[in-house]
Write a structure and sequence with these properties.
alpha/beta, Rossmann fold, eight-stranded mixed β-sheet
């Protein structure tokens, strides 16, 4: 665990899993809107023998700073570039979920030569009205009802019906964890930023490495056609996850681990079959 200060003084919290080894790939995971590095721990612990894994909270997330100008995608991309410079990482793979997938695309526009390949989770090309109105609604709920109400409002949007049915007895604990890991002021600033982001189609990089798009079949924010269209635009492939919503890492962790191991060509030697630490 460590703190890196961006050029404007904003502190960025990051964690590294796995020993430094020039023969191993480096994979950086980029958070979804209400995620923090803690959400990626199970993956980092399972992958650290095959890759060096970097987790970090974007500004206005988790343990990173939020008392700064409303961050646009260019600022997020610059933060990531500066973090890579700080860590001495010349070439990396990227995995981004939802908001993190947009940051990933902005990063690929900013420093394409440093990205080996990338995986986009829960993002499509349509960027439709439903998603825009959802963010507007979340901002209103946060302002008028507070952080816990926001997290409860997020549940039916970011999780599939099957996940909600299976986890109904622990939904209160999920909300409690989300509240503990997030800060009302920070997430409010982040939602304000997201409302002003350009359409996904406007931020696609000109230079595209190997790409994979994963989408949940029960995701109200991402259409199957839009996910496939995004993969086609990026000359990548698209994998559809049945009975899965927007929160792919929480809902289909084993499938996601398999996809990451295969896509990044990790030498897993069978240890991914074990339980996360």
């Amino acid at each position: 665990m460590a703190i890196f200060q961006a050029d404007d003084g904003c502190p960025l919290f990051y964690e590294i899993f796995g020993e430094e080894d020039t023969g191993r790939p480096v994979i950086v995971f980029l958070n979804g809107t209400a995620q923090t590095t803690l959400n990626w721990w199970p993956f980092a612990n399972r992958l650290k023998m095959a890759a060096r894994v970097v987790l970090y909270d974007a500004r206005c997330q988790g343990r990173s700073g939020g008392d700064c100008a409303i961050p646009d995608l260019d600022r997020h991309a610059l933060d990531l570039e500066q973090l890579l410079d700080h860590l001495g990482l010349e070439r990396v793979g990227l995995v981004g979920l939802s908001h993190g997938a947009r940051v990933l695309l902005a990063a690929a526009r900013r420093f394409p030569a440093r990205i080996d390949r990338f995986m986009l989770l829960s993002l499509d090309l349509d960027n439709g009205m439903r998603a825009a109105l959802t963010v507007t609604g979340w901002r209103t709920i946060l302002a008028e009802c507070g952080l816990e109400a926001l997290m409860r409002a997020m549940l039916p949007v970011v999780f599939s019906e099957r996940f909600l049915q299976n986890q109904v007895r622990v939904l209160d604990k999920i909300v409690e964890a989300l509240v503990q890991r997030n800060d009302a002021d920070k997430i409010g600033r982040l939602l304000t930023a997201i409302a002003g982001y350009p359409p996904v189609g406007a931020i696609l990089p000109a230079q595209v490495p190997r790409t994979r798009v994963l989408a949940g079949a029960d995701d109200p924010l991402v259409s199957v056609a839009g996910a496939r269209g995004l993969a086609e635009k990026l000359n990548g492939d698209c994998r559809l996850l049945e009975h899965t919503g927007h929160s792919i890492p929480a809902e289909a962790p084993e499938r996601l681990l398999e996809e990451i191991a295969e896509f990044f060509e990790l030498n897993t030697k069978g240890y991914l079959m074990g339980e996360p630490e």
